[in-house]
């Protein structure tokens, strides 16, 4: 899994321009919210955000921010899952999901020490992922993917419970964003 392949898959889920008043993200284009685009320096109208600008944002704010080139060398399907989650929930949330999951799958610290869920994928998180994959192999990657998706699904439900307006989106989020990991750590 590399950035271009992951981006193509994500863009297959993300429609063009959207301005749904129920969407807390506000105006979006290519799945990029206005707030993210502005923080990246884009000042134009959201409906005119170009694909090249969107790619640059995806690369910087999600792929590189999560060190997904390094994650992909260890567990390619996990790299894609984290990228897809980050696009929809933010890079911090995706990193926290990985850290929390690795912590509960380390046999109470017997395989590798817990990592602080600091929402940043750093050296210790990568080392823990590497150790987990070496010990558990393809089956472990499948379990890791299931756990990441379970956390993501729970996040969506809890969000809609807090903000009723998000109920309009939960079905689609669960349909398009939460997938069951198949054998060998792939996606079903």
How many DSSP helices? 8
CATH class: Mainly Alpha
CATH superfamily membership: Chitosanase, subunit A, domain 1
pLDDT < 50 stretches = 183-188
Report the CATH topology name. Chitosanase, subunit A, domain 1
Number of strands: 2
**Percent of residues in beta strands:** under 5%
Distance between the termini: 16 Å
Helix percent band: 55-70%
**From the alpha-carbon coordinates, what is the Rg to the nearest angstrom?**
17 Å
Largest sheet descriptor: 2 strands, antiparallel
Q: Please give the order of strands in the largest beta sheet.
A: 1-2
Could you spell the SSE succession in H and E letters?
A: HEEHHHHHHH
List the helices and strands and how they pair.
Blueprint: H1 3-13, E1 28-29, E2 32-33, H2 34-40, H3 51-64, H4 68-74, H5 76-89, H6 91-104, H7 123-162, H8 167-176
Helix pairs in contact: 4-5, 5-6, 5-7, 6-7, 7-8
Q: What does this molecule look like?
A:
This protein has 188 residues and is mainly alpha-helical. The protein has a single domain (3-185), classed as Chitosanase, subunit A, domain 1 (Up-down Bundle), CATH 1.20.141.10. The chain contains eight helices and two strands; from the N terminus they run αββααααααα. A two-stranded antiparallel sheet has the order 1-2. A hairpin with a 2-residue loop joins strand 1 (28-29) and strand 2. The longest helix is centred in the last third of the chain and has 40 residues, at 123-162.
In brief:
By secondary structure, the chain is mainly alpha-helical. Helices cover 62% and strands 2% of the residues. Helix 5 packs across helix 6 (91-104) and helix 7 packs antiparallel against helix 8 (167-176).
